[in-house]
Amino acid sequence: MGIILWIIFGALAGWIASIAMNTNSEQRTIADIFMGIIGALVGGFIMNLLGQSGVTGFNLYSLVVAVIGAMVVIYISRMFRNR
């Protein structure tokens, strides 16, 4: 995927994850993009550990993987913020 698609994909995944984790009002669009892109990397890593393929392109499976990864990133950031 090109850089523009990664940004769009990251924004979409980060936005969905922030809605699911009730942080949508706290985060801005840039934070959603970063959480989504980092979430795609984390989700791909987690899926590789489980023996599945990670992010494979701009499709529904990859979006689900990225959203799960972004939710993990949001959860970890909450743990550090609440300390």
Overall body shape: globular
Unreliable parts: none
Rg over CA atoms = 12 Å
Structural class computed from helices and strand pairing: mainly alpha
- Mean model confidence by pLDDT: 83
| Percent of residues in beta strands | under 5%
Order of helices and strands: HHH
Number of strands: 0
The tally of helices reads 3
Compact description:
With 83 residues, this protein is mainly α. Helices cover 73% and strands 0% of the residues.
Walk me through this protein's architecture.
With 83 residues, the protein is an all-alpha fold. 36% of the residues are buried. Helix 1 (3-20) crosses helix 2 (29-49), helix 1 crosses helix 3 (60-81) and helix 2 packs across helix 3. It is globular, with a radius of gyration of 12 Å. Helix content is 73%, strand content 0%. It has one domain (3-81). It contains three helices and no strands.
Characteristics:
single chain, 83 residues, 73% helix, globular
What's the topology here?
Elements: H1 3-20, H2 29-49, H3 60-81
